[in-house]
Amino acid sequence: MQCKLMAVVLAAAIPLCASAQSSVTIYGVADAALAKEDTGAPGGSRTVVNSGNQSTSRIGFRGVEDLGKGLSAVFNIEAGVALDTGKQDEVMFGRRSVVGLKGNFGTVMIGREYTPIADVANASDINGQGFYGTNLNSFGGGRLTRRISNSVNYKSNSMGGVIVTAGYGLGETATGPSQDLMGLAVEYKANNIYVGAGYHQVERLAAGDDKEMIFGAGFTAGAIEVRGNYLVANPTGNSNKYEQANAGVSYTFGDNKIYGNLQQSKLEGGAKGNGYSLAYSYALSKRTNVYTSYATIRNNNKAAFGVFSAGAQVTPEKGQVGSDPSAFSVGVRHSF
Question: Which end of the chain is more exposed for a tag (fewer CB within 10 A), N or C?
């Protein structure tokens, strides 16, 4: 009897010993909203249930193992899910899937990772790349690159508030241009001030390399937060340059927060769209909030820019230049 009891105690102790060395966290976001979307074309209005009008709905797993002497093994895999249909993303862990080492030297990750520019774009967007009117429309249509597969990435530890991020994504092509992406970003985060800049170079065509750039800044003063950025995608070729500028402000009072953003997008050749967005969030708890969001963009007769949220987009139908898309949503978001 005593032998059996000891065996049970030892069996129970094994996972406890393992957890002292490593840990795995399951986390996620569940976000759904009722939305009114309008492409700006005749008959282009519809009412829908969307997933992710503030944050993309997702589930993720991240873990760390203490290897001793200040070194840790880390990993993160994250999958998107559409709450309106229950479908997962086309690539199951396409949001992020990395493994690497973290120490006094910084963090090295291998796998599918956010680009250096994506870090700056997120930190300098007043909407947190969430509500309708976010700068995510800069990453649509093959303009700027938000994630890179087959990549090796480095992020330094903070050096007096300065953080350096570098990434190299392998195109893994057998012939022709390599499709490789090289990226670098430098950020400063201290004393309620944020400044960041990033640059990508992509070997997409034999004729030359595509270039992507961003500059972002912001500051917080009590209940007021200001964020803005300038993004550029300059693909190989003539009259291809894309530019976007954002300037936003938010104000927090109690459990309430109001967001506003002005946005301009333009293409070399004359296409231009001027947009604005407004959002309101009320915190029911630290993990749950309700929100409402509205955005529109006014395109000139050469433009067909759209409005994007974290999990949805409203763009003019093909060939409908000059249409003015808009979107309004009311939703609930819970993080766990």
Answer: N
Dihedral sign computed on CA atoms, order 99, 100, 102, 107: negative
- Where are the alpha helices (H) located in the chain, listed in sequence order? 2-21, 116-123
Cα-Cα-Cα-Cα torsion 118, 260, 48, 137, nearest 10 degrees, comes to -30
Q: How many residues does the chain have?
A: 336
Q: How far apart are CA 190 and CA 331, in angstroms?
A: 33
Residue matched to tokens 């503030």 = 54
The 10s digit of each residue's pLDDT in 57-97 is 999 999 999 999 999 999 999 999 999 999 999 899 999 99
Low-confidence ranges of the chain (pLDDT < 70): 1-21
Residue 135, helix vs strand vs coil: helix
Strands (E), the chain: 22-38, 45-51, 58-68, 71-80, 96-103, 106-114, 147-155, 162-169, 181-190, 193-205, 208-221, 224-234, 242-253, 256-267, 272-283, 288-299, 307-308, 313-314, 326-335
Residue 303 CA to residue 286 CA, distance in Å, equals 41
Q: How high is the pLDDT of residue 120?
A: 98
Classify residue 206 by burial, with Cβ atoms within 10 Å: 0-12, 13-18, 19+: exposed
Our CA angle for 263, 260, 222, nearest 5°, is 125
The predicted pLDDT at position 117 comes to: 98
Q: Which three-class secondary structure state does DSSP give residue 178?
A: coil
